[in-house]
Write a sequence for this structure.
């Protein structure tokens, strides 16, 4: 992008064109509350959609929804509030996409994790390349992937994750356990591949 | 508790999400069971890897400005819907004035109705064009790249004058739909401002547009069988000199 265009963008960023006084205070409150969390929203959306362009679309769409519903924002944790909207938008996006390619099917009831020689696991994980870890996380079904991202990367509590994902805390705990178990297995078992 | 049951709780223990009684039980088991302890170490290693900066995706620097533009656009539309229709006093005044200019208005009506709709459309295009990634489909400051680009996409060839020496460098071009007709959109810049020039054959083209819509200035003219509209937030005098140069250079 040439400098001239980037500057145009920056200028818009600093002063939205044609902003009316009536909305400017709502808009500056929105900017202050929500924009700092675009990064978190993008990280979640990126892991859900698994590609850059779709993640940006999801976050922009989520931000517009957040703006439309900003009146219902009551000053609670803005990051959790925005992530809830990003997550819902991302999940809707996934459902329109139909079945996810490359990721496993998700079935809440299935519980088949067997213990397979955990001894070299830790070493295998410490030595695994970033690409392999990324691929392992992307291969998880979206409901498992999102709890991992929200917990490990966004550092949210089980309670916050439960609110964002709309599931009970016990389910957060069991999904996390399953997700981690699958990641351990993927990273140690597929070492030779 | 057996190992299988413990294994599902090690992660929660490390997350500090177990109640004290359960946490105690799991800790005790870990101190006695080397296999589960190894599992705990593996989970710790996994957590560290998942948290690595290279595992966290960052948006492009354009995302936040893009969101702000989109929100500003929505805010403005909302504001316009909310604006009161017309105050009563103005209605009375308008009625009086209406008698005087009524005859003229009849002549101008068709054109007038169209011009406001067209102006709104042009202003809308302008705002959308300013969203990152939407401004140009062919990006070049060289008219010899931009002009041929349109050849495969339009049935006409818009003039693409080089105005860089006058301080209006070419940015690129794209194809737009204007009142249902394909038009070439040429993009020039002036300092930080963007100027969009829409061009289509004059035959059957929409006519003049209101000179101002949503803070954008609009100019319209016809030359050599082509109709032109220029849209920008540039000051009117600068826009007029741009138009004069554009017309002079495209003859």
């Amino acid at each position: 992008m040439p400098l001239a265009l980037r500057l145009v963008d920056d200028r818009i960023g600093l002063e939205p064109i044609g902003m009316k006084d009536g909305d400017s205070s709502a808009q500056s409150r929105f900017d202050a509350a929500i924009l700092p969390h675009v990064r978190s929203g993008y990280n979640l959306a990126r892991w859900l959609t698994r590609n850059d362009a779709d993640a940006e679309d999801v976050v922009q769409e989520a931000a517009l929804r957040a703006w439309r519903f900003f009146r219902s924002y009551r000053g609670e944790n803005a990051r959790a509030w925005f992530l809830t909207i990003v997550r819902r938008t991302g999940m809707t996006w996934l459902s329109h996409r139909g079945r996810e390619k490359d990721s496993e099917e998700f079935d809440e009831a299935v519980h088949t994790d067997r213990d397979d020689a955990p001894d070299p696991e830790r070493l295998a994980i410490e030595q695994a390349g970033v690409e392999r870890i990324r691929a392992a996380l992307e291969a998880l079904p979206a409901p498992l992937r999102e709890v991992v991202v929200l917990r490990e990367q966004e550092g949210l509590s089980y309670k916050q994750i439960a609110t964002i994902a709309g599931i009970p805390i016990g389910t957060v705990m069991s999904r996390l356990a399953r997700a981690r178990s699958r990641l351990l297995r993927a990273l140690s078992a597929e070492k030779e591949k | 508790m057996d190992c299988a049951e413990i294994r599902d709780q090690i992660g929660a223990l490390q997350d500090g999400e177990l109640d004290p009684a359960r946490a105690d039980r799991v800790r005790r088991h870990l101190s006695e069971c080397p296999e589960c302890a190894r599992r705990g170490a593996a989970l710790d290693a996994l957590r560290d890897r998942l948290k690595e900066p290279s595992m966290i995706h960052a948006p492009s620097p354009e995302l936040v400005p893009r969101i702000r533009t989109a929100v500003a656009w929505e805010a403005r539309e909302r504001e316009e819907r909310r604006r009161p229709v017309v105050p009563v006093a103005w209605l009375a005044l308008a009625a009086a004035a209406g008698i005087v200019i009524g005859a003229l208005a009849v002549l101008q009506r068709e054109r007038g109705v169209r011009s406001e709709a067209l102006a709104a459309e042009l202003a809308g295009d302008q705002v959308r064009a300013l969203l990152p990634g939407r401004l140009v489909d062919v990006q070049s400051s060289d008219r010899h790249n931009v002009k041929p680009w349109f050849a495969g996409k339009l049935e006409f060839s818009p003039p693409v004058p080089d105005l860089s020496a006058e301080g209006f460098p070419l940015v690129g071009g794209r194809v737009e739909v204007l009142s249902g007709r394909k038009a070439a959109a040429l993009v020039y810049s002036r300092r930080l401002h963007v100027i969009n020039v829409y061009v289509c054959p004059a035959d059957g083209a929409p006519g003049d547009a209101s000179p101002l819509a949503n803070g954008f200035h609009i100019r319209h003219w016809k030359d050599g069988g082509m109709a032109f509209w220029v849209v920008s937030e540039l000051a009117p005098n600068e826009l007029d000199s741009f138009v004069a140069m554009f017309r002079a250079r495209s003859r």
Notes: The mean pLDDT of chain A is 81. Residues 121-192 of chain A form a domain with the Arc Repressor Mutant, subunit A fold (CATH 1.10.10.10). The CA atoms of residues 36 and 79 of chain A lie 8 Å apart.
